[in-house]
Amino acid sequence: MKPLSKLLIFIFIFTFSINTNAQKEKNAWLNGEWRGTGFQLNNSDSWSIHFIANTKKSVYEIKYSSLGCSGIWQLLSVNNHLAQFQETITEGISKCLSGGIIIITKVDNQHITFTYFTQSGKLDSFSTLEKTEFK
Fold first, then answer.
1. Rounded to an integer, what distance in angstroms lies between the CA atom of residue 75 and that of residue 52?
2. Which positions ≥6 away from 69 have C-beta within 8 Å?
3. Tens digits of residue pLDDT in 31-80
4. What are phi and psi of 112, to 5 degrees?
């Protein structure tokens, strides 16, 4: 292999590793267990929210226990203060909407906001979640 090719490969690998580490640092604020009460805009109902984010494994689980449904969130984008997810309900499918977009915003190290938009882009519900001990 020519020296220039080796240098280009090294630069590519080095740049990729920096970007991967930067991405992990961007979503580290999400890591943990979060709880709160969701509020529905169209009927003033409320329900429990339990969000578990394991950023090291890229696993994001959601439970709406009082509604009888739960699911997973797929991370779409993240920066140091905001994350966007698409929700897929996997249990209690008939009880909760699936496919919506969730926007999580960092308030501080112990609080995040939760904003839910339907697939059509309509604002549907919101909450403030508080960080709890990771179990």
1. 13
2. 89, 91, 92, 93, 95, 96
3. 999 999 999 999 989 999 999 999 999 999 999 999 999 999 999 999 99
4. -135, 155
Distance, CA of 42 to CA of 97 (rounded, Å): 14
Whole-number Cα distances in Å, 29 to 17, 24, 39, 89, 119:
20, 10, 24, 24, 26
Backbone torsions φ then ψ of 43, nearest 5 degrees: -140, 5
Eight-class DSSP state of 11: H
Q: 95: which residues sit within 8 A by CB, 6+ positions away?
A: 67, 68, 69
pLDDT averaged over the chain?
86
Q: Where are the beta strands (DSSP E) in the chain?
A: 32-40, 46-54, 59-64, 69-78, 82-91, 101-108, 111-117, 123-132
